[in-house]
Amino acid sequence: MSNGLQKVIDYIVATLLMFFVPICIFGVKKDTIVQINVEKMTSGFVELTTAQGYLTKNSYEKYLKDLSDTGKFYEVALIHEQNAFEPEYKLRSALEVIEEDETLWEGINEYIGLPVTTKIPVITDPIDNSGLTMNTETNESVLAKAIGTPALPGHVHTEACYAGHKHQGGSNTTFTHSHAHTYSSTPTCTRYLSQARMDVTCRSCGQFYTWLCAVYWMDPETKQTSNVYLNLNGVHNCVYCNSTNLSVAAKNDYAYTCGYNIDLNGDTYNEEIAYGVTQTYSGFSAPQSRTKATYTNGCYSYHVSNDYTSYYKYYEYSGVIKNAAEVYNILSQAQFQGFCTIPLYYTIKYYSDEDDPNSCRRSITYMAQYAANGTVSLVFSSYYDNGWPPPNLKFPQTLTPAGLSNLNSKWSFNDAWYIATGQRYTNGTWATTRVEYYGELDTCDFNHSLANRWVATCGLVEDATLVCNQKVVSMLPTHPTQAVYVGEKLITTATATYMDGSTNVVICTTAYNANTPATGVAVPISYTDATGKTVTGIITLTVIPKIKTCINGHIYNLNVDGSDPGCPYCYNLLRSLSVAVPSSGRMTMYRNVAGSLEAEGVGLRAVYLDGHVVYVYHGYVNNLDPDYVGIQTVTIGYKGLTTTLQVEIVRNKKKCEVCGLYYNLYIDDTDPGCPYCKAKVPVFTGNVMDYCRATYEDEIITELYEGSGTYYFRHGDSFIVKTQSRNKLAELSQIGSLFKLQIRVQKSDTVKDEVIHN
To answer: H or E segment at 117?
Structure first.
């Protein structure tokens, strides 16, 4: 290289060093300051975390922000170190495990030998006939000497005494009325003297008698009384001795035109009752109420027919309906209910001249409609209007009776018209209004031709034929306890008691046949009387068979036909008993709480007195203890005899689902666990190894941002933070790299306290 070129290069280098070296030195100083600040930030972050015992996402993000404020990029490493302890384990052999398991079992293996009780079969053959009285009579002999008794003299016939239905109740029913006498300008309950009597005592002969002096009658029109009977002879002369020396005391009998008369003190004379005082009167055959109602007594019903026509008032001569508006008012105030019939059509009319029927100016007609629930509505039917005055009338389509409740005896057409049209006419003088009605609407389903009297309504046909002397109400067997031989007939006679109290001996029937021996059996007998009624009774019966004695001295019954069935004692009683299965007399079985010899197939050989042999596999008793593991001598009993069997019970085994090997269960069948698998599981030696376990920032940050947001430490744990800048001097790219200036900080501390958290 030439000297000139070299000089140029040296000049350039000198120039660069003149400018960039100061800059590099300045950058180094600046990094030193940042290094100090980062160390302070890291120390504060570590101290705060270890003092709290936990790290939060907010404190971590604040630390990163403080680092970012220095203008550099850093790599931050978080390390959580804690001491860990690990026990030391070893492996055992299967034999060692089995021996150890045996020492752990605390159960009891105790043999319980219970006594064996077996009874000799009870043979009920033959039937003992000692002390029995055998039948010596027959039905015919009993009936021949039987004597019946007549009906009871005090028997009173009831409905049950008749062949069919007998009507009960009805006209024999009495009603009690409640009434208070009223008095007005036209009295409705005028009192008058009905009878005048005298209590007479003769001073001469001493006889006493009551003499009817006079009977009076009141004219209902004039309200004047007059006597219809007058006789004073017995008051002047004694009816016994004709003496005139008499003591006479007057007794008056009063009556009322309303018909409610009463004798209060029982002296046979009706007293005077003050007006307005309510009194009860008994003994009436009809109810007092005028309101529609039905009274039922036994088979009869009494219907009170309440018709609107009962409220009509007639002129004395013409018979024309008078004061129809008053009747209409009664219907409306009663809400049109409680009537058997009501008018079908109602016409409210206005007349200019009451005496001129042709002067009707307007009228509205409604038709009554009766609903099943008992309510009545008035539906608009038609109207008449002669055009004076000519208002535009709008009639309501339906009126309820409640809407007409303000109509009374002083109502005017204004009121009726207002109710019917919804408006009141006030531009004139209304002369006369009236209500006319016609047609009838039946609101009651009772047959009114049968009303106001007792009528049979039970629907049954009466049959009053007396059969109480034929109806049996009870019976008593004449021979309630009997004993017969097989095949003999029973005595089935009984004393029957009839409904009227009379008795008679009758022959009953029974389906029982004395063809088999029996003791104390209840035999039903029955009798059907002339009315078809069947009554039953019970006979206690003993049937005695014929007997035979066998070669062993047993007494037993023969068959009904006399053939020999064989001795039941020799057939059912044992001579000997032994174990047939197993033939060796020994057996081994696994322990089973519900185990039994029958389930293991143990069989016995039973030899009976008559020589026949039976092998028994069920029905015997024994004292096997299926809980005891070991050898036991079992006693087996059957029909009064016993034998023995040696049984060894061994432990149950179990196949391991893991290794497939079999192993013994405990004596009580509890599972100690597979010893072969246990041998593969290490056991603690007693030694504990101590080591340090570290958790790094990946797990810590995952818990902060994907978990609960808080990372917890334990007391004594170490928290380490390593921070290193990723960039070199920003001011020097090439030269700065020569210096390799970086910021590194590592701080650690021990956690002061432990935070308890869920």
So the answer is: none
